Amino acid sequence: MTPSDTSGSPGDGPGRWSDLERPPLNATALRRGLVRPGGLWTEFEVVQATGSTNTDLVTRARAGAPEGAVLVAEEQTAGRGRLDRAWTAPARSGLFFSILLRPADAGVPTERWGWLPLLAGVASAGALSRTAGVDTALKWPNDLLVTVAGEERKFGGILAERAGDAVVIGMGLNVSLRADELPVPTAGSLALADAISTDRDPLLRAVLRSIAQWYGEWCRFEGDPGASGLQESYAAGCATLGRQVRAELPGGRERVGEAVAVDGDGRLVLATEGGVQEPVSAGDIVHLRSVPREQ
């Protein structure tokens, strides 16, 4: 199958308007609004379906695709989350896209590239809060949360992959997913969180503009998370901090403690028994209970 751009017209393809509550993205208008001279976004493409936008864009990155390429899919048939977990959702029920960045060109040292998925989280959470009118939060390291019926629910995930001197960041955001479509009971969507809008065009435009703004500032300070304000903003929006958590680490190991900080390397710092502070650089985090913060 040859992927093609959506245009926002009902006559562009068979079956695309089978769900009138989920119209296609208007690729032409989005491209016009996002791809500007001197801006970060240099290419913008929407495809009807693909296995994984990250896989596709990693391949393009290795072939020399420019920084600022954006690939969006109306449907992913083999979407991937962290630890190679599957990510599934009905066509046009969310935003499924990947972006290509080349931070080395801006002089950002490789040891700071681990902040990029956290940067994408901060940028996306802020943009979606403003545009959709819902409170969003970050779960370390790469999840976005909303509140549905009084419970925290994951509605978005971020996956970053290195491709030579480039980084590809993929995002999956549940927008109009209904309760009977949830892949797991702990999932959520903007619609289920009573968003004031589930129009994907302005949501995607806001997210990409916010990422561009944060990325530009981060690069201006050569990836320094403190000087760019990224570390502070991530901590302010992170629902994991101040919580008792269980860190499920590679190799089957576990650590339980209070999440007290995100350090300069983007690692989650746990205060474990005996007052030992231990940084966690990778793993699954399970929120156990809240810990009241001191005033």
TrEMBL record:
Presence of keyword Ligase: yes
Query: Keywords of this protein's UniProt record, alphabetized?
Result: Biotin, Ligase
Region Disordered, as annotated, extends over: 1-23
Q: What is its EC number?
A: 6.3.4.15
- Please indicate if the UniProt record lists Ligase as a keyword: yes
Q: Name one GO molecular function term.
A: biotin--[biotin carboxyl-carrier protein] ligase activity
Q: BPL/LPL catalytic domain: from which residue to which, for each copy?
A: 33-219
Name of the molecule in the record: biotin--[biotin carboxyl-carrier protein] ligase
